[in-house]
Give the backbone structure.
Amino acid sequence: MKYLTTSSFVLTSLVLSGAVMAQTAAPSVPSLPVTPAAIKAYASLGYSVGGDLLVDGTYSNAGGPFTLRAGQGLQYAVGLQYRFTDRWSAQAALGYHTDRTNGDGWNFEFTRFPVEMMVHYSLNDDWRVGLGGRYSLDPKFKSLGTAEYLGTSSLNPSLGGVAEVQYMLFPSRASGNAGGLSLKLAQESFKLNGVNTLTRNGEHIAFSVFAYF
């Protein structure tokens, strides 16, 4: 037992001495924190509901009703985000917002190119809120197919506001890349050129998926 105790002491001493020598010969290098890029590309795809009625009727061929509203339709957007801090960022995006009736030959369509400028605040890694402004470029009400003889009407947009809540499904603090779901409330209105008394409210709620990369 005496020799076993002595051997254990010698072995332990050698192991500790080797560890000290290794740390002395190759000191550890502290790792640097990874900082996400300040500028990120942005893209989104969604659908909105709401707004005043632009046109309604009944298809003569199928007998079904149709409606077209000033705040409804598919939305696509691309843009850039600039991150000031871990929590604050600014974003600019250009989109395409469109909706149309789906009859056989007799159709109407409302299109515009919304520009949105927003500031977002990160509540945590999963949730963000944002506020900003919205202005729709070149809004047009088009008559298509057999209704084409009715022509195309250009509208005058108002400067509107937008509020957003984002939920991050795939957050990445290290790279700054992320994707998730968005609920957005937008307010705007449109007037027919030369007819100031004809105003249509385009206020709507939009649901979309988005990504920063």
Remarks:
- The CA atoms of residues 96 and 113 lie 5 Å apart.
